[in-house]
TrEMBL record:
This is TetR/AcrR family transcriptional regulator. Coiled coil: none annotated. Residues 11-69 form the HTH tetR-type domain. The keyword DNA-binding applies.
Length: 193
């Protein structure tokens, strides 16, 4: 899909809107387009012309991280070690979840405001499923682990980090610790005869 490039002033306004939205999300403040307009010094109509809904703005803020995760997923798919590929993908995913407040609500939404968001989420889901299937086929993960289990497990780690109240500098270390415990439970255990 091609889009017409924005005029310079419109592009500056778009950038300002997204930057303010990012600040609000990082502060834990719910996105309200009127509030974004006030904080940017732009007219409400200008904000609404760029983003019809708060969800569209939230998804726009999350898009760069979703794109980075998608790119990492492609790299993981190229890894010939099925366990290492899955572990790398899940590690990058949980790191993103604990450092980017825009991801959880976008991932949890059952309906997306932007087609690009749907495309990225479907790509991530497909990548995770493929990586899990490969790891299962290699005998590296428990056979009873379903692809549908991955999202709640990753969200659970992110939620646990939030509940733990780790300082921002420790959030990734805490997430890594929790993920290591989870990954230990996902590994297939050799059967004894």
């Amino acid at each position: 899909m091609t889009t017409t490039p924005l005029r310079k002033d419109a592009a500056r306004n778009w950038d300002r809107i997204v930057a303010v939205a990012r600040e609000l999300i990082d502060q834990g403040t719910p996105l309200q387009l009127n509030d974004v307009a006030r904080r940017t010094g732009l007219g409400v109509g200008t904000v609404y012309r760029h983003f019809a809904t708060p969800e569209a703005l939230l998804e726009t803020v999350a898009t760069p991280r979703l794109e980075a995760l998608t790119a990492h997923g492609r790299q993981a798919l190229a890894d010939t070690d099925a366990w290492r590929a899955l572990e790398s993908f899940l590690t990058r995913t949980v790191e993103a979840q604990v450092t980017d407040a825009s991801l959880a609500p976008v991932a949890a939404a059952s309906v997306d405001a932007l087609p690009r968001t749907t495309e990225l989420k479907e790509d991530l889901w497909s990548t995770g499923t493929t990586l899990l299937d490969r790891a299962r086929a290699a005998g590296a993960v428990r056979p009873d682990l379903a692809a549908a289990d991955l999202v709640p497990l990753m969200c659970g780690i992110a939620y646990a980090v939030d509940v733990h109240g780790s300082p921002p500098a420790d959030r990734i270390n805490t997430a890594h610790r929790y993920l290591a415990a989870l990954l230990g439970g996902l590994r297939a255990t050799p059967t004894t005869a």
